[in-house]
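Researcher: Here's a chain I'd like modeled. Treat it as a single chain, no partners, no ligands.
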Amino acid sequence: MTDQHNVVLLTFPDPSACRPAFEEAEHLPGLRQAAVLERSADGLLETKDGYARGAGVATVGSGVVGGLIGLLGGPIGSLLGFAAGAALGNAAEEGRAATGGAGLIVLSPRVPDGAAVLVLDIREASPAAADEFAARHGATVERIDAEDFAGQVRAAEERAETPADDGPGAADGPQRTDGAGA
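Model: Modeled as a single isolated chain. Structure tokens:
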């Protein structure tokens, strides 16, 4: 059986129950990323915690490779190579973080007032491990296929980048009502 890449949402009616689950979630097989979204009783949404497996690896790895290549130019070349490689690796990680942030925004309507949602980006050989984990922590489970979810995020980003149409004549710019400029 092949692994299924899912976004698994565990909803906790009591936000205090989410923290221990988040700490334990790092050990779930196939976990790639996790985040906690919590909404206060008055509707304020916060990202409480986040985890990404392998965070920092691209920055450090690119820096080391750049430093090794820079050795050809001597000590200064090594230093400059490390700095350039680390900057490129960091840019890659920033892009990954921005996409993750957009995903959390798309999920925000699913967080009820006064509750918390633990979001898991996970490759599952079987849903049993996450289902058992949720039951043990008293959470309800919702699964979204990762490809479908990525499509939802792309669609939301496209809608956000598209200028709003303010109705007829919006493309003509502001209209003067004082009779001047005609």
